[in-house]
Amino acid sequence: MSRIGVFVCHCGENISRTVDVEKVAAEATKLPGVAFSCDYKYMCSDPGQSLLKKAVSEHNLDGVVVAACSPRMHEKTFRSAAKSAGLNPFLCEMANIREHCSWVHEDREEATAKAADIVAMMVARVKKDKKLVPITVPVTKRALVIGGGIAGIQAALDIADAGHQVVLVEREPSIGGHMAQLSETFPTLDCSQCIMTPKMVDAANHPNITLHTYSEIESVDGYIGNFQATIRKKARSVIEEKCTGCGVCSAKCPQKKIPNAFDKNLGVRPAIYVPFPQAVPNTPVIDREHCTKFINGKCGVCQKVCGPGAIDYEQTDELIVEPVGAIVVATGFELYSIGEKPKGSPIKGYGEFGHGTIPDVIDGLTFERLASASGPTGGKILRPSDGKEPKQVVFVQCVGSRAREKGISYCSKICCMYTAKHTMLYKHKVHDGQAYVFFMDARTPGKSYDEFWRRAVEEEEAVYIRGMVSRLYQKGEKVVVMGSDIAVGLQVEIEADLVVLATAVQPRSGADTLAQKLGISYDSYHFYSEAHAKLKPVECATAGIYLAGACQGPKDIPDTVSQASAAAAKVMTLFAKSELEREPIVAKVNENNCVACLYCKKVCPYGAVEEKEIRDRQGNLIRVVAYVNPGVCGGCGTCQASCPSKSVELDGYTDEQVMAMIESL
Amino acid sequence: MTPAKNLLTYSYYPGCSLHASAKEYDESTRGLFKALGIGLKEVPDWLCCGATPAHNVDELLSLSLCAKNLSLADGVEGDLAVACAACFSRLKVTQHHLADSDAKRKQVEYAIDGKVSFDKPVKHLLEILAKDFGLDKLAATVQKPLSGLKVACYYGCLLTRPPEVPQLDCVEAPTIMERVVGAAGADTVAWSHRLECCGANFTLSRPGVVLKLSGEILASAKAAGADCLMVACPLCHGNLDIRQKEIEEATGNRFGMPVFYMTQLLALAVGVAPGKLGFDSMIVNPLPLLREKNLL
């Protein structure tokens, strides 16, 4: 290869401010094999790309180096341009003179010299590039959705409506998630159950959706288009096919006083139960930890009263393997608890708020259950300690969130809105009551959102006090809230009947374990990471896995539903073709040299390396070598670095190419 | 009484209060430690730590006073035992600042005309009793359990704060005082104002502030059913004990709540003669309560 074109980009001023791009282009012409060189203000723009295409044909170029930004940003752009000019796209390489040069240096002369060196290296490399052909892999057109909250349900319905099979897995006995727990939703105050429960039924009845509740992901193998998900269906102790959901078992269960987690422990439930009356499926489970039959064998009432004979104490966990082509992760959130945290956790509790020991200090979700028509109080706002109607309620925002000293520095995003909603719901139900809100800022951007919180202040007369709360303590029947009002510079004390804490939104517990099973990345708070914050907000860096909802970061319902539909659209895009094209930047094993030490297998983060048997024509085993499955290979090159006999190489990054780059300096 | 076999020995910084208004804290500390067989050797020639006023006026002065004391303490064997919460806080804060900033250390070394040492562990008596001596051993040493005595343990604002410095116990929900006096058999009450400020040294300049803050502390302890308060700071003691009558007059509440230094109660429990614990210098007479509980 000897006719290389070099295209140097100004990136507006991003590169040209620090690097003398004209000089870099001029220097490039002196390199052996360079037939053409130029610079342009925005290479990635339409005229920029046309410049490249024109040069390829006019100068008969057989290789292209674009000196611009990171290949993560525009490699694809320029490779397509090269392809449309008739070049094999893998004969186009990028020299990163922005992130690797102009952005990190100040001295113009030195930066220019470095940029010229980077270009020289890439020219040396592109000369050794080989024409590569994209790999095709088959696609299994079934999707797995993990999490049956509003995000998972929406994604599942969208994909199913498009005609594809969906497997929906939910860890709890019913789908619905947190949205099913909410009372009314901002900013329209429509009842959460009224918009949620029909969707739950749709998901359960959809011919294309297979629903596994009370189930967890055991393991996931494979790669985009070809995943194998193993699902652990936990023993319900109730045979789903036989159960009619009549409810006699729950009614007759003698064990009645188990705190109801769905009602945030405000109410009680029996040992055989459905989490809430509108549960989907309406099939109970036996809570084996609290069931007398399982504790000492002395009950069995539910089995006796069950007409259809659906109770099965002997049932065991079942493992189901589902082949799927794409995965949507929608595991949602939970609220930070102010109680003491286990030793070693970076997140501290709230000793100054009593570590969760004061009964009339509750969190936002508990208030939702109090305000919900289907809640333990039938929608009456009654405080937990003595069931009295609270006349003074203090809401405290930013509890644990935006609190670096507690270990959570992010804003939980939804609390300003739901606290405003809580003050309204409270006032609608307790007309002579007074709501106070301690807040730092009101963060209410969004359609009709700011209007909503202004309504709480102006029409419902919630008293907003700008300042932090330092302490909460019990004083007789009251909870004293000690805070500050920074607007007037005074300390404030309010004797409240009920205190509602807007505690931080955190990912579901176990989010990290699931991420490790799926091979996706997460941040220090265990929120899942998207591939690109702006341009790939629903994709994971791992191909074929998509994100929806609060598992990625705090989100309200409209954002969650939008993202769920976006994730579904990504899945449908993937399913639109029967074969999937993948970049051919994968590792290949030289079987002649491979001694099957299989170090590459040990180090491969994608699990792409297999053992391959080489046999003669008679079928006798001659030897074993390593084999890289091109469908699974992520192109990281770790195998290449670890191979002691230099038998495995990554296409596009061969030893020869790397040596050529070094020698060009 | 034969002291229990123990190899613990400490250098001891009493601070000004313990030689004046808080003599009973000093006496009971020495009595308690003797009974437990823990050696205490007073740092010779120590000077005032500056307590709360100095650092409000001149940071260099407040650091230098404590630095001088720390370097004097270096000449005495054992970790430095401190009784007063304010002295404890200032000495720890000084160590913290000087370890953190070379510039400050140089200034201070110039001011005290000598090297500053900040390696010697500075320990509050509570830490020595709970961690070094040990609660089990303390419980085993008790001769007269404080059973039936309902104690409100009062930490005040200095024992655990600022958060990074004393590292004595959890900043917002400590239990070390309850654990120590609990080991001596006392019943501790759960109450709300354990960590509130008593008004500290506003006692002379703004007595109104003290009456309000200390009044709330007493009222809260009373509401929780406490018989008495237990403190570890001479300033708190002054405000809660000496001013109690005044607080009663101002608020119309009747407390009659004896305010003990922690060492008084512990020394009593391990068998030190009550006559040596300075009960007679307390303003709110504790004797009727102690008699009622059969502790005398």
Provide tags for this entry.
heterodimer; A: about 675 residues; alpha/beta; FAD/NAD(P)-binding domain; five-stranded parallel beta sheet; about 25% helix; globular; B: about 300 residues; Glutathione S-transferase Yfyf (Class Pi), Chain A, domain 2; 2 domains; four-stranded parallel beta sheet; 13 helices; 8 strands
**Mean pLDDT across every amino acid position of chain B:** 92
With helices defined by DSSP (H or I, 4 residues minimum), what is the helix count of chain A? Answer: 17
- Order of strands across the widest beta sheet of chain B? 2-1-3-4
Main β-sheet description of chain A: 5 strands, parallel
Helix and strand content put the structural class of chain A at: alpha/beta
Shape of chain B: globular
Quote the CATH topology of the largest domain in chain A.
Answer: FAD/NAD(P)-binding domain
**Major sheet strand order of chain A:** 10-7-6-18-29
Write down the CATH class of the largest domain in chain A: Alpha Beta
Instruction: Tell me about the largest β-sheet of chain B.
Output: 4 strands, parallel
Low-confidence stretches of chain B: none
Distance between the amino and carboxyl termini of chain B: 18 Å
Q: Level of helix content of chain A?
A: 25-40%
Distance N to C terminus of chain A: 19 Å
